Amino acid sequence: MYQIGDYVVHNGHGLCSVLDVHTEGFGFYRLETYHNKMLIMMPIDKAPLFLRPILSKAEIYKALNDSVLLSEEYIKDNKERKLHFQQLVTSNNIMDTLHLLKMIYQITEDRKLEKKTLGSFDTQFLQQAERKLFNEIAVAAGITKEEAQSVVYERLKSQMVY
Hints:
Layout: E1 7-10, E2 14-22, E3 28-33, E4 39-43, H1 47-50, E5 51-53, H2 57-66, H3 78-89, H4 94-113, H5 120-141, H6 145-157
């Protein structure tokens, strides 16, 4: 059970803080999203389906190091790629988020070579995945969101071979 003040990661909203825990009757958590201060009421019995604890600094950096094993190959068909990206962005597994970002960064590079821009749904998934990941890394590692962004960019882009 989470406690007031704990950070958790919601599969759809990203990093949240636990504001209240109500255990009487219909038990629920009152959460606040980190990025826009939106309030969420989460039934305690449903929490394992949507929430996970924030990772430790060591777990974050292990995942970043393990990201070298992730492929940047992506599905070319837009409809199939959209479905795949939706699964990855809502899985609440940091490796899935890193994989998603690695593929979108590769799509971005490919589009630049074609003198094109990133499509709208790819851009939406990019923003959602970056927000989710950068906020968690910043809080877990005690760094700014901008520093977290640099760490992720350097790690994922340094692995790309052209």
